[in-house]
Amino acid sequence: MRKKILMSVLSVILALSVTAGLTATAQVQMTYLAVGDVCGLIDTSTGIVTIDADVEGYEGLTTDVSITINLQYYDTNKSKWVTLDTVWEDFYGEWYGEFYQQWYVSPGYSYRGNVYLTAYYFSIAEAIIMNTQTLVY
Question: Considering the domain boundaries, does residue 135 fall inside one?
Fold first, then answer.
């Protein structure tokens, strides 16, 4: 079961873009969350999108971390990003976590990973949101 989030006053949201194949790193000065990384790749020969994410808190202080990955496509009719699928991994009792997911996608669309990285100190949470670069197929 997914842990309910009580967001602290110190919650921060960052939106970053990255080049396909490169990792975006956010080093933040937060109390429980230290570093977040996301990477998005698309294999145009197979139509497989891979989104990889890491979250790092502080050893001895951060009690849990979690990663939520939203695969999104750009809807040109609505001019907005639409979530196709959501996956997550919770790392209870850990201050570091790494998670990736792969999807088969249809040609003719633009995709991205919209990733929530969260670090907890018991029921207090700090989160950042990071986006991969647009992946065109």
Answer: no
Is residue 125 in a domain? yes
CATH of the domain at 43: 2.60.40.10
**What domain range includes position 25?**
6-130
Of 131, 130, 128, which Cα lies nearest the Cα of 10?
128
Q: What is the pTM for the complete model shown?
A: 0.81
On whether the CB atoms of residues 14 and 24 are closer than 8 A, the answer is: no
Q: Give residue-wise pLDDT tens across range 9-52.
A: 223 333 333 334 556 666 667 899 999 999 999 999 999 999 99
Q: Would you say residue 1 lies in a domain?
A: no
- pLDDT (tens digit per residue) in 54-69: 999 999 999 999 999 9
Kind of pairing between the strands at 64-75 and 110-121: antiparallel
CA–CA separation, 29 and 80 (whole Å):
31
The residue among 26, 57, 68 whose CA lies nearest residue 119 is: 57
- Total domains present in the chain: 1
